[in-house]
Design a protein that fits this description.
114 residues; mainly alpha; 8 helices; 0% strand
């Protein structure tokens, strides 16, 4: 099964990664840009097309450059590992709650002592 991810899903996922790296909640990012947490969630899941002025607010709030947000330097490597790429794409299509559940299961499996 070939999974494809839209540019809005990719950008949303990168925003989520940078937000989490900053240890911010969706509520904190929303407050910083004058928006709502539900809108941030929709952006992160790729459900909303993000306006350029909103991109500018987000990169400013997260202290990023536009290049950092749109950089795809790791994508060719990930695409060369089809099962990894498909797993990432499948995860991006889920809501944040489901993503966190799957992450916890995977983490538990990988860190499990024999």
């Amino acid at each position: 099964m070939e999974l494809s991810v839209s540019i809005t899903q990719r950008i949303g996922a990168k925003i989520r990664l940078h937000r989490i790296a900053k240890n911010w909640t969706q509520e904190q990012l929303a407050e910083a840009i004058g928006s709502t947490a539900s809108y941030i969630g929709q952006i992160e899941r790729g459900e909303k097309n993000i306006r350029l002025d909103t991109v500018e607010k987000i990169i400013t709030a997260l202290d990023l450059s536009i290049e950092q947000l749109f950089d795809n330097e790791h994508e060719p490597f990930l695409q060369s590992k089809k099962w990894v790429w498909d797993s990432i794409n499948l995860m991006l299509q889920q809501d944040e709650r489901t993503q966190r559940k799957v992450y916890r299961v995977i983490r538990e499996m990988l860190l499990e002592e024999d």
